[in-house]
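Supplementary Note 3. Input sequence used for the single-chain structure prediction.
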Amino acid sequence: MPTTPYDASEFTVPSRGGSRGPFPLAHGDGVDLKARWWAVPRPRGMVVVAHGLGEHGGNYAHLAEAISPALEIDILAIDFRGHGRSSGRRGVVRRYEDLVEDLRAAIAWAMSRRPDVPLFLLGHSNGGQVVLRLALEGAAGIAGVIASNPAIRIAMPVPPEKLKIGRVLLSLAPWISLRTEAPSACMTCDLQAALTEIKTAGTRTNASSACMTCDPVMQQMFRSDSLRHNRISAPLFFGMVEGGEMLLARAGEIKAPVLMLIGGQDQTVCPVSNREFYDRLGSDDKTFLLYPKMLHEPLNELGRQQVFDDLVRWLEPRIGSVTH
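The predicted structure, written as discrete structure tokens, is reproduced below.
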């Protein structure tokens, strides 16, 4: 019996099909990427999910349960390198673009299995930035993008002295990952703590679940999930910060359909900056849905059924009628 709804290998979409995973995805640089696939017999579309920092694809099983049977679509959820069951040190990348390449591998796999159905990207937080980067590039075959509280700007400014420490690690020890005391306080450490981290890199700690959702059941699941972590390397942190500013500056170049799901009480990324990004989008098909009382994870919040219903309503007309 499953002990958590997050393990795709123990999860079945009710009466519609089943899940497979975690299974390996081909990748050119030798990284062992894992993904989970919730498949239906005759899919009308597919959604590829990009999780946030410290999460993994299995955290989206309840999303698959909610929208896969309702829309008759497949869900594919990747574990980025350094996350979940994929290989790599926790929270460590050589460069931020590695995550973009990981998602490209997932998209290529999805398109090879379902070449004749529309494909959508759904990204949360850091994963939201990754999917928006692909939208900016005009990635071929993408029918639309859903961004849940994307990491455009973090909500809590990082003190200059701590940024300096991060820059030192970026130059001298990019493989080191630091723990975040809370998800909104990336890289919060002093020099002594950084030196300690170099000696004990890889130690797992629990992220603050209270910053993520008001749902106590979900909070407990986060705390008991051994695959989650709250580690971040300097290349990942600075790549995320710089990438968010790049997306703000170039939002007008994004033409794909975009849905943004925003928690108004988010303490991790800045809701105001997300609205600014939305206003700058160049897409003629864009939707901004604000959930005023929700924190960082609308898909895991109290009242998340409303979010699922909104997601289904947005996807339905864009999937259209597909003949097999």
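The first strand starts at residue 18 and ends at 25. Confidence is low (pLDDT under 50) at residues 1-17, 181-207.
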